[in-house]
Amino acid sequence: MDVLGNYKSAISARSTDRDITKKSQDGGIITTLFAYALEEGIIDGAIVAGPGDEPWKPEPMVATTKAELLAAAGTRYNISPNLYLIKEATRSYGLDRVGIVGVPCQIQAVRKAQLYPIGLRDVDDKIALALGIYCMENLSYQALEAIVEDHCNQKMESVKKMDIGKGKFTVYTERGAVSQMPLKLIHKYVQPGCNVCLDYVANLADISSGSVGSPDGWSTVFVRSMKGNAVWDGAMAAGLFETKPMDQVKPGLDLVKKLATEKITKNQKNVDARKTVGLKADGTPKGLRNPYESP
Amino acid sequence: MAEKISIGELHLSGCTGCLVTLADNYEGLFKLLDDYADLVYALTLVDVRHVPEMDVCLVEGSCCLNDKISVEELKEAREKSKVLVAYGACAAYGNITRFCRGGQWNQPGHEAFVPISEVVDVDLYIPSCPPCPQQVRNVAVMAYLLLRGNDEQKNLATAYLTPLMQLAQRGNEACGCDLMYDVINQGLCMGCGTCAGTCPVRAITMEYGKPNVNRDQCIKCGACYAQCPRSWFNFDVMNNYEGIMDAIKGAMQ
Predict the structure, then answer these.
(1) Is this structure's pTM higher than 0.95?
(2) pLDDT exceeding 70 applies to what percent of chain B?
(3) Where is the Coenzyme F420 hydrogenase/dehydrogenase beta subunit C-terminal domain (chain A) (predicted)?
């Protein structure tokens, strides 16, 4: 399979809803799609990364209104275990049609849960819309704190927005200060689990979206499944997005492909290196587990 | 429609939750029985006294070593079935029966309960307590394709069932600790929350994005480990999720 996964169309897009683009990270694609799906009854609720008890720490939540979606909009560069709520959403919240957003590994978990519902009873047919966001790597909350407070020299609670782009991690504060650090310096803070991930653009999502490849304030969208296609067409017909063809925007799909290839090549090397990480007493290689081979 | 396969359920030391789970497929169970499988042996559902020959035998419950009949029936089921499935956590991992210590009415002498793989070879595991009806349905459809399908269907069924067969090879001990040993300690956890969402007894919470297992609450059902996307992930099957789900849905209509 291609490094970008199977997709039916790739578009550069931005939400036409200014309430959303004011709060969203880039083009407001995920928030707008969930708001549309809620409105149309395609989903009864969506599992999103809501606000947590510490500044910039996300907490998975079930959003059933546009206001709740808006409260969750924007990227917080640390872990939100959204799958934690997947069974809860169909029980305590009684949802029949669940929307869920996640980074590639989380969307992989969603698809595994559907094909192998081992402990997730009555969930497989209730996943109505799985939206993916591009992800190179993720951080623990403490790692993000170290980056923002130690490297960028800003208090977590004074930060208005964080952004990754053009090789830099950028922090914007409420009072207008902008702090930056080179992206390559954050690699040592990345959670180790990301180093074996072979997916950059959420290949298994119904629709996936991220800023890479599109101009500032816009997002690159991959429409992947039949379901995703139907939802995207509906949202387009409702006038919720302005779009540009992917081959007419800079830097374009080539950059997405380049980053996806880099991530997958690097991480495949890590997966392979794990096979021979140590030596047994007799000198033969001793390896770590390969999560893609066997339990 | 090709000839149906035969499925039986052998009931050992379990709570009947697994058997009820089979019925929890509702009209799906009728569809399975109409088109794909004959139920040839099952407590309360089939009036057959002795273990018959069958294609797939689902074994519910752990094996009580103090109960001669249990041990004998399990061995007999192994001999008479092509595929023996540890159906549910007790059969696969011992589950709650791991904590039995005898002294209970009306068989105070029954105190030694082991996962069935300590007595016979097991081909495939369906973990969790109780197992999910949809997982049993998927295994039943795939077993049908494996035994009665064309080459393409056989390949798909083999790819689908392989990880569940590998789980059976992995061993008969599982609990929340496996997440620690095989996922977190191995540097594989990325904090998706599947384990906490899966746990039937809510023994797992997510602390700063990583699972924390309350070991006193854990019942050793193995669901968290088996459901974790980093315990195993077969790209060939999951990348075709849309087609496979449509196929299963189509088979059940």
Answers:
(1) yes
(2) 100
(3) 96-248
